[in-house]
Amino acid sequence: MARTICTVLGTRPEIIKLAPLIPLLDAEPGVKQVLLHTGQHYSFAMDAVFFDELGLRRADVQLAVGSSSHAVQTAAILTGVEQAILTHGIELMLVLGDTNSTLGAALAAAKLGIPVVHIEAGCRSFVRTMPEEINRVVVDHCAAQLLAPNESAHKQLIQEGIAARDISVVGSTAIDAARAFSARASDRSIVADSLRQLGLFHNTPFLACTVHRAENTTTDVLPGLVRGLNRLAELHPILWPVHPRTQRLLDELRLSISPRVMLLPPLGYLDMLALLLGARALCTDSGGLQEESYALGTPVLILRNETEWSYLVDAGCATLLGNREDDIVVRGHKCLTESEHQRMRHAAQVLTKRLQDGGAAQRIMQAVRQRWLSQVRL
Ligand code: UD1
After folding, report:
1. Ligand 1 closest atom vs CA 248
2. Rounded distance, CA 362 to CA 167, Å?
């Protein structure tokens, strides 16, 4: 009889990072995959566009939880996933990353005694006030199988007392997908169109930027962060696709934006890759985009004081700028000198050679197969 495995997604990073794995699970003999969308993200630009561009099939279960406070949203995911587990006879739960969707699904499964596989396990920012840090720590500690993206995540899990036999290092599907889709992204016109609208030539060096973290989208932090970006834009113009959460606060605070900073609506996957491919550097507080940018050889200037992707900083292809005006300007200028920029690009190439990325989805499939599918019963 087929084993019923539930794969959960709900936000941009989960859709992108699970896209290479979902077809493999659909094709796996003896497996019935139930694809569950929590509906944490629901706007076309935050959700459906990624399904379209990545050629992903529609979800089997749609919870449509929508936006709310953390407690209300997570509670809706918990009860919705519990119901889906019972209705569909789910035997194994696959979750990725650190969102409220990840947390709600993992908890619902663990409480019913359904084993949880956590993809992207072991990443830590060590900042417990960050909602994602709470989510990833809790999910790691109720998972039965932990699939770490890199060696430092593996080491972290061991330090936290997780048994080595439950951990495998599988790499990162975000890196593989960014490289696989980069050829399709290279002929997008978003960069040339945006620079033209700024009155600049299509080959003007520019910075890409994104900001959406809870800790950066507050009335205390965002004004200084925007002033810092405005000043950095005197060096290179900035193309900034704006997350709805950030747009709301920009509007509310009526923050002044430099004419050299172009605000764009949230972008689909291919347009975002096109921005990363063309940019001199990416300024971001996103986790997923740090790896996507590295994958395409573009230096990453992190608008935070720490990152759960510290291996990129250690390797020299990402730098922590922080989120305060003067730090952004001073550290940003330092990274954008010709010599430092070249050094960061080179560091990305060296890391790529060392990691030999590629095949993460296949390694995840293999790990799941070995642990859960080769037995007579789950
Ligand atoms: C969530 C994740 C974060 C991830 C990010 C990717 C948590 C705790 N955080 O943060 O880890 O990096 O997704 O984008 O799960 N909104 C829309 N349309 C949508 C979705 C959201 O307009 O389709 C607006 C709503 O006003 C909402 C706000 O964006 O309140 C924030 O959305 P939410 O999912 O709560 O958090 P993100 O900041 O997107």
Report:
1. 26
2. 16
Catalytic residues: 212
How many whole angstroms separate alpha carbon 96 and alpha carbon 93? 10
Complete domains list, the chain, with CATH: 3-171+359-373 (3.40.50.2000), 179-355 (3.40.50.2000)
Residue tagged 């076309």 (tokens): 44
SS3 92: strand
Q: Whose CA is nearest to atom 28 of ligand 1?
A: 245
Are 126 and 306 in contact by the 8 Å Cβ rule? The answer is yes
Note the pLDDT tens digit of each residue in 18-68: 999 999 999 999 999 999 999 999 999 999 999 999 999 999 999 999 999
Distance 71 CA to ligand 1 centre (A): 14
Q: Is the CB of 245 under 6 A from ligand 1?
A: yes
**Ligand 1 pocket member 285 (CB < 6 A):** no
Q: 6 is written with which tokens?
A: 């539930």
CB of 284 closer than 6 A to ligand 1? no
